[in-house]
Design goal:
The chain is of the alpha+beta class. Helices cover 36% and strands 20% of the residues. A five-stranded mixed sheet has the order 7-8-3-9-10.
């Protein structure tokens, strides 16, 4: 309050609505229902491969009513819902739909950032920061998607003063929701949520909050900065404190930490030799991605999950490189230490390139054949980009040419030109 003579003037601070967050509901399953009308209205599960030993990577809302969700084993899903429609994932199709959706949304509001293949947000400006106009924009986006891309591509839209709360608003009404959280709604509007419903709170963070006596979102909102700083181990707690109160918190810059590919092996490839071939293919795909980013890797990690629940992993450091042959040589060394166990077949395998740096920062040796390798890699990449990933390949992957198709990770939207099949 400011006092001027006998008058008291109350100054209030109103946080404008700045973020419109779009979260597509059961995205993979919804795309399948859009492109295949016979699946509409039916319980659908999308699988990496059609096999009882794998798990669901997406479930339609019809399937969710039976208790089926992401991560449910296929054999359990079929028990829960005998009429469940099983569909093999088509990552290239999902990426294509994603691009069409971004284009439609962009025609109505600028897409500030794509967070994943099914999540993105727009930063609002001008009159769109007012509640009625923001909600009208949300309805307009929904209508445009239905008319242009398809009626099965439903989304939940959240609107708030920051991205965190806008994303949280999408959790308050699903599917097909449209929710605005304004300053006067805080913090009570959040109390119906569970801690794990909030972005940035996983199983480990939940345990840390519980240890500090924070058992609910209400308790989290009432906690002071020192408590949250202790929970997050630093400034992350203060950023969470600000987000919960509707403050606009700029994103911190982040660097790409790793490049990885994994694959659930179909029954025909659950052998030592076939797994090795698939690993060759995964390394070759990762190497091409590495080069497309203009980066080099200083470490290779290999991991294997076996059919009996056991696992094996190995890690190796190497001179920073983006050369496929050098990475394959390192893979060969690591794989030579894999313990072959009779009747315990490999089930899921993967590789991760770590310790990534810009290639421009790499010091090159005067006594190696890097220039020749560079020309070879560039030629292979050009041919595969033009004619398909199996046009030219290193022979170790021959047995797995039909395996390890393009996959979509939560925070990585693959480029079909670089990672397509």
């Amino acid at each position: 309050m400011l006092a001027r003579g006998r008058f008291v003037i109350e100054v209030t601070s109103v946080m404008p609505l700045r973020a419109l967050y779009i979260d597509f509901n059961s995205y993979f399953a919804s795309v399948e229902q859009q492109r295949r009308p016979e699946l509409r209205g039916k319980p659908v599960a999308v699988l990496p491969v059609v096999a009882d030993t794998t798990c669901c990577i997406a479930a339609s809302y019809e399937a969710r009513r039976f208790g089926i969700k992401t991560g449910t084993l296929v054999r359990d899903a079929k028990r829960l819902c005998p009429d469940l429609q099983l569909v093999a994932a088509q990552p290239a199709v999902y990426v294509d739909y994603h691009r069409r959706l971004v284009e439609v949304i962009e025609s109505r509001a600028h897409v500030e950032k794509v967070l994943s293949v099914d999540e993105m947000y727009c930063e609002l400006s001008g009159s769109a920061r007012q509640r009625d106009q923001a909600l009208a924009l949300g309805r307009e986006i929904k209508q445009a998607i239905a008319a242009t891309v398809g009626t099965e591509l439903r989304c939940s839209i959240g609107i708030a003063s920051n991205v965190f709360l806008a994303k949280t608003a999408t959790e308050l009404q699903k599917p097909d929701g449209l929710v605005a959280i304004e300053e006067q709604d805080l913090p009570g509007r959040l109390f119906s949520l569970k801690l794990r419903d909030l972005y940035g709170i996983g199983a480990n963070m939940e345990k840390r909050l519980h240890a500090l006596g924070i058992q609910s979102v209400e308790a989290l909102c009432k906690a002071g900065k020192p408590v949250l700083r202790q929970a997050w181990g630093g400034v992350g707690g203060e950023r969470m404190h600000a987000r919960l109160r509707g403050e606009w918190v700029p994103e911190l810059p982040s660097d790409r930490a790793s490049i990885g590919h994994s694959h659930v092996l179909p029954p025909a490839l659950r052998s030592h030799e076939a797994a090795c071939s698939v690993l060759h293919r995964l390394v070759q795909k990762a190497a091409m991605r590495l080069r497309s980013y203009g980066m080099v890797s200083g470490a290779l990690h290999v991991h294997v999950s076996r059919i009996d629940g056991s696992s094996w992993e190995k890690h190796a450091r190497l001179a920073p490189t983006q050369d496929t042959l050098q990475l394959l040589s390192t893979l060969k060394t690591l794989w030579s230490g894999y313990p072959v166990v009779v009747k315990v077949a490999p089930l899921k395998i993967g590789i991760t390139l770590l310790d990534l740096h810009a290639r421009s920062d790499q010091s090159r040796s005067l006594f190696d054949d890097l220039e020749i390798r560079d020309r070879l890699n560039a030629a292979v990449d050009r041919v595969n980009s033009r004619y398909g990933k199996n046009a030219v390949y290193f022979g170790g992957a021959h047995q797995a040419l039909g395996a390890a198709p393009m996959r979509i990770a939560f925070n990585h939207i693959p480029d079909p030109v670089i990672e397509g099949d």
